[in-house]
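Service request form, structural biology core

Requester: graduate student, group of Dr. S.
Request type: structure prediction, single chain
Budget code: on file
Notes: please return the result as structure tokens.

Sequence provided:
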Amino acid sequence: MKTRLSHVDAKGNPSMVSVGEKSITKRVARAQATVHLGKEIMSMISHEDIMTKKGPVFQTAILAGVMAAKQTSTLIPLCHPLGLEDCQVNITPLKETVVIDSSAEVHGKTGVEMEALTAATIAALTIYDMCKALSFDIRITEVKLMEKSGGKREFKRKSHD
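Core staff response, request fulfilled:
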């Protein structure tokens, strides 16, 4: 069985997938990213956020993630523009890391997994940017799709993945 990439035409050129014949359904996706900040930066958390010269880190990252999700089609060439109905970004501080959970929702003909992944990634990059004056030993890891529903194929990551 030969598998063909969805965004490549028969000649091997990049091609946007036609969604013209697809049905409009409720589409939901959730993604996650982890940012390893280390003990020193994490010790600066007060009132559930880190305050730097640039401002409140987590609040800024949440806004950046939502804004980025709404711009996904301008950042990723073959993504369809979507009118998101909801986008949420939540940040949970742990021992030496923060976990970013993002979700995106739309009633449409194509999924929102790229929007959820973009939100989590840009929130993580925003945290890096705002904390880099404190340390360059920051790592962004495990950007991953956690689940998606509403399209042809459902997906839910196992809890141990």
